Amino acid sequence: MSNPIIPRGRTLAIATACLAVAACSAGTSSPTGPGGGAAAPVVAEGSDVAVSAAAQTGPPWGPETPNFNLEVVLRGDGFGLVKFRQPNDGATIVYLDVWVRDLVPATEYLLQRAVDTQVDGTCTSDAWLTLGKGGVPQSITTDARGTGREELWRNIPAPPGAAFDIHFRVIDKATTAVVLQSDCYQFRVSL
Predict the structure, then answer these.
(1) Which pLDDT score, from 0 to 100, does residue 178 have?
(2) Which among 91, 42, 37, 40 has a CA at the least distance from the CA of 62?
(3) Cα gap 184→191, rounded to integer Å
(4) What's the confidence (pLDDT) of residue 160?
(5) If the chain, 191 residues long, is cut into consecutive pieces of 10 residues, what is the mean pLDDT of each piece?
(6) Does one domain contain both 15 and 85?
(7) Are 66 and 73 a contacting pair, CB within 8 Å?
(8) What CATH number does the domain containing 164 carry?
(9) 48 and 80 inside one domain
């Protein structure tokens, strides 16, 4: 009998499930994450190695539900991601880790967002705000291969628990042409 070839993603899912079962059957408490007992196994980005959430550096993040922390996909003339995160610390600051690729090399771009307070899954607002470090806009500059990365942040003036629809775009700083844009996402300010 021959061994079936299992795609890498499926192997990763099986390995993660096995680690979770092994951790629970070894007499430990059920994984609950920061502040609530043992940390659940987390797979490091780009790796098949599982590490505990406690071993990761950085501030503790809000609840891992889709409406508190977003993974925004940007599509268009290239590709991009925005990791939109709010720490679980009582402040209303969100961190936006932006990564773009396949854009024009050695060019400055800006990340913008528009918000709808009517939470219906339809983003109709065109009131674009340029994001940056606090209230100061920050460029995302691509390297010689058209890849750029920037860590941005913003204080959200909405009260904890407020919800809104949000969408993003990346524009060329010099021409203001839209090069990437996202679908509509829903976000809720963490309590």
Answers:
(1) 98
(2) 91
(3) 22
(4) 79
(5) 45 40 37 35 37 40 58 97 86 92 98 95 96 96 98 88 93 98 91 69
(6) no
(7) no
(8) 2.60.40.10
(9) no
> For residue 1, is it within any domain?
no
List Cβ neighbours of 58 (8 Å cut-off, separation of 6 or more).
none
Q: Are 72 and 90 in contact (CB under 8 A)?
A: no
Residue 18's SS3 state is: helix
Domain extent at residue 26:
8-55
95: Cβ contacts below 8 Å, ≥ 6 apart: 83, 84, 85, 86, 87, 151, 152, 153
The one-letter code for the residue type at 8 is R
Residue 96: both structure tokens together: 């936006």
What are the CA-CA distances from residue 23 to residues 20, 49, 57, 60 (Å)? 5, 15, 22, 22
pLDDT of the residue at 67:
64
Domain tally, the chain: 2
